[in-house]
Design a protein that fits this description.
The complex is a heterodimer of chains A (135) and B (242). With 135 residues, chain A is an all-alpha fold. Helices cover 81% and strands 0% of the residues of chain A. Chain A has 5 helices and no strands. Chain B has 242 residues and is of the alpha+beta class. Helices cover 17% and strands 31% of the residues of chain B. The chains are: A mainly alpha (135), B alpha+beta (242). Chains A and B meet through helix 4 and helix 5 of A and helix 3 of B.
């Protein structure tokens, strides 16, 4: 009987952990999708010369950064790239820094700086994604 | 001014500049084809403001000072073996130049710009992805240690040979900071040799410069008179080394 109870408990624990991991993965996937949408929004509004829209896009980007900033990148980096978790974390911090400066550039009416910051955010995204996908 | 006095002034000025190239704040192209940019001659001081003496430098320790701009970090090293002499280096754009050697009695003391020539990773007060890896510590970037490693993308550079690229995605060597040793054993930075990437650095890290130095313009200011030189462990909160 003891063995059965232990086995059931172990099964319950492992399935709970599995579900938790799936939920975490799903959360990150959702955040990433929203971040991508935010980048599209920023770019579109830059073309339309709509400062309010750009700032809204930046807010959206920042709102979906929390998981990326707080999670351990080892969880989503490929095995051979796990060592680069601090690199990934740094990219997240840099995105935040450029996003903050992007808002300042919008408020200053400095279109060139807005574009520079946008490009830098894209650079941070791609440099990490290149690692994740082993490009 | 008569002709004789005029010639005396021109001759004396020429001789002075020949002896002290760092008095010219401009690019100089030496006979070797080497590209060298002179900046203000700056004395390296420790954290307490005392002159750093070459004989006091610990072997294989990463020291950091900002030069030639107040926000551009450079690494100072006292290697545990003599550096090579007259190393021919080639920049990404094909320019060739000669890195003469380290300085000091055994030619072991070198200084390089700590801005990676690949994607400009560099030590900041928060963290450092670029530093010299001591011989007894492993690195993933190259088959042996005792090299400068950028842990962002695992490029490595030969500290003994003018920071020429050894492995990884970087192509250019790190730029060298030209240093001199005074008669009293003190150390002075006088210029930069090679592709320095400062222009890209200022453009890329504008928000970071704002965070640490109060803005891009302030970060671009040239270092004058002296440069505070501290161990990397004091310069930054976290060292990231693979």
């Amino acid at each position: 009987m003891k063995k059965i109870i232990t086995a059931v408990l172990a099964l319950m624990l492992s399935s709970t952990l599995l579900v938790a991991a799936e939920v975490k993965d799903q959360k990150m996937a959702d955040d990433m999708k929203e971040m991508m949408n935010a980048m599209v929004e920023i770019q579109k509004n830059w073309f339309y010369e709509n400062p309010r829209g750009i700032k809204k896009g930046v807010k959206k980007l920042e709102a979906h950064m929390e998981y990326l900033k707080s999670s351990d990148a080892k969880g989503y980096l490929p095995k051979d790239q796990e060592y680069a978790n601090k690199f990934a974390k740094k990219r997240a911090e840099m995105i935040e820094l450029y996003a903050e400066d992007l808002v300042v550039s919008v408020e200053d009416g400095n279109d060139e700086d807005v574009l520079d910051n946008y490009t830098q955010i894209m650079n941070q995204c791609t440099s990490c994604h290149m690692r994740i996908r082993n490009w | 001014m008569d002709r004789r006095n005029f010639l005396k002034v021109v001759g004396a000025t020429g001789a002075f500049i020949a002896v002290n190239p760092s008095t010219i704040q401009n690019e100089l192209f030496a006979n070797t084809g080497a590209m060298f940019r002179a900046y203000e001659r700056v004395q390296l001081l420790d954290g307490a403001g005392a002159p750093i003496k070459i004989s006091q430098l610990k072997k294989e320790m990463n020291y950091v000072f900002n030069y030639p701009h107040v926000s551009t970090p450079a690494i100072l090293l006292n290697l545990d073996e003599s550096t090579a002499k007259d190393v021919k280096l080639t920049s990404e754009t094909g320019e060739e130049y000669v890195w003469e050697s380290g300085i000091g009695k055994d030619r072991t003391v070198v200084a390089y710009s700590a801005i990676c020539s690949h994607q400009l990773a560099h030590p900041t007060p928060d963290d450092s992805f670029l530093q010299y890896v001591q011989k007894d510590k492993p690195t993933m970037a190259f088959e042996r240690s005792g090299v400068i490693v950028c842990s962002s993308h695992l490029s490595s550079f030969d500290a003994r040979e003018g920071a020429k690229r050894l492995s990884g995605p970087a192509i250019d060597p790190l730029a060298s900071v030209v240093i001199e040793v005074g008669e009293d054993d003190t150390l002075w930075a006088v210029g930069v040799l090679g592709s320095d990437r400062f222009h890209d650095y200022f453009k890329t890290f504008k928000p970071e410069l704002k965070k640490f130095y109060g803005g891009k313009r302030k970060g671009k200011k040239l270092v004058k008179i002296s440069a505070k030189t501290v161990p990397l462990t004091e310069y930054t909160k976290e060292i990231i080394q693979y």
